[in-house]
Predict the structure.
Amino acid sequence: MDRKVVTLLVLAWIVPASRAWADDVPWYQRSLVGMEVGPTGAQFGADPSDVGYAARFDGREVVRRCAEAGSEYVVIWARDGEYAYYDSKVVAKCPGLGARDVLREAVEEGAKRGLPIIAYCVVQQGGHYLEQHPEFAMRDAAGAIIPGRFCLNSGYLETLKSLATEMIGYGIAGFHIDMLDQGFGRPYGCWCEACRKLFEAEHHAKPPGGASWDEGWDRMLAFRYASSRRFERALYQHVKAVKPSVTVDFNYHGSPPFSFEVGQQPVAHGENGDFLTGETGVWGFSALGVGLNAEFYRAATPGKRFQVAMQRGVRMYHDQTTRPLNDIRWELATLLAHGAFVTMVDKTGYDGGLDPVAYRRIGEAFRDARAGRADLTGEPVRDVAIYFSSRTRDWYGREEPSRMFRSIQGAHRAMVLEHIPWGIALDENATEATLGAFPVVLLSNAAILSDEEVARLTRYVEAGGALLVTGWSGTLGGRGEPRDRSSLESLIGARFVRRLDSEDNHVRLPADAPPPLLTGIEPAWPFLVEGPACVYRPTTARPIGELMAPHRTVRQKQGKEGTGWPMSAGTPVGPAVLLHQVGKGRVLTIAASPDAATGGEHPIVEARRFLVNSVRLLHPSPRVRVEAPAFVESVVTDDPSSRTLRVHLIAYASTPATTPASNRPAVIPGLIEDAPMYRVRVMLSTPPRAARAGHAGQAATVDGGSVVATVGNIHEVLLIQY
Ligand SMILES: [Zn+2]
């Protein structure tokens, strides 16, 4: 046979074969944007006589409109706290639907259009089913039913399995299982008979009498985590046993602002599905939470895809409002740049009708996103790992986890505003290799560190890593008890003397401080660094500057007046900074908490600079350095195969807001309406070969070792060839 003919035949074989392979890739591996649609009107309960509710909720229409908007999959509400939206034999069907079956409508329409249909199925949320089955109720330490909560050890799992089997029979592609929390605060559970028995079998002890924050409560936390994990894994295995191709993802509550109360740990509860799904939105997680959550999910499930849900309403899920297009674009671009695939949540009107304007705007935002798909490749370039200690969350944060989160979130805020590329490192899955990928590891008030963690961090530094330590890191025992010594003393190069009992601490840096520690900070000038602080006595480290405890008035000393508002700087009590060479690496310890200050109520710019200057002292020659306004978030990725760096620039140009009607001064941020125009400079350690902006009409020029551009979009990407 002619060689050319053979080649053509081979090609003819390869092309369809590769297309078939592409179709075999699970939907969540190939999707970028999708939608979740469910009705509004039963989220606070529903009366069975309310037949107007969801009467027009139509699976066919939902799928048709989502497809027209460019959605690559549809998550359709199949079961919420009140009803099933299909012909279920297990739980009550929504009465307004009459003979219709929304799940069947959606699956049939999805099959016609080649769109995967994912069933939304809720676990918690009480509702009619829990009222009819009090044997599944969660109970508090006194044995009283906790309203609206199912116990995950009660046998309720079998109900979920039956529901899952029913829905798999419809031909769905997957499940989004929502609300596996054990509550969002007091009262905690569960002390039902089933839990008591299981606890005693597992721990050979009686459950504690409540949140006693002692050995018994330590066991209870472990028991609660195990209960959530067991439930998730059993449900996952059931689905896979019925039909292996059906995907399962659980809505995740392992990241801030959630803490122990929900019964989830960052890694142990992120890894139980085919991929992890989390929520975001300014309404509950702040503007900065959008990127922080995405990177947290990435860290919890390394190597896996992760999904983030955002909403189209201006305030929250169920309000029937639609955000301006640029506001939607900002959040969507932030999530995509951080590596997520994104589900836009739409809640229908009361009767199930869809808002045409919402679908038009979502469609436009999705078109942008899909057009930019090629620029969502590459590995993130990251200089700093923000280290997250679960034990510190639980036992230092306890029932006030913001004590710990403020430092983590403030550190994150400083990195974003100053354009230092960052990632999250989680104690549960950190290894020397994963830490070693970061030039700097930041222990942000990581008060509780195990011997194993300290040993791992020591090896990281000895091998050439740079450790940045703040606040009370290493100064508390395993259950949050005060320690006389810091577990980090040999790394810090100083003897731990004491924790300050004040938060309004100040720092003063001398004019001869090593550069760039003073950049943007006045020398010999005390500035407030509000947050936890420690007094150290240097042994082998070089001390720099002074930590100053606050003045206290006579009335404050008498206990007649609080110390919540910051007082001016008083006496120096120890060094502000300790710089220590360890093996091939360095440790820079800040005796105060510029991270907590940046996340707190007095977030002065100098505190933020202090933290960021410390990073730059430890890592003076980063590969990429971005100079852009503080309202712009930058995300850098590297694609070595094409020798391309991509710098995503996303502008959070929120409009000013006025005095709120309630909860003054907790202002709700204004929506983003306009795309600002600003200048950006990207400095590179080696001069680039070429650069261009991803969007037409935006210029980018190479200027020696820099790329300079003027940007006028909510989202822009600079492509830099090296
Ligand atoms: Zn129970």
In short: Residues 215-242 form the longest helix (28 residues). The radius of gyration is 27 Å.
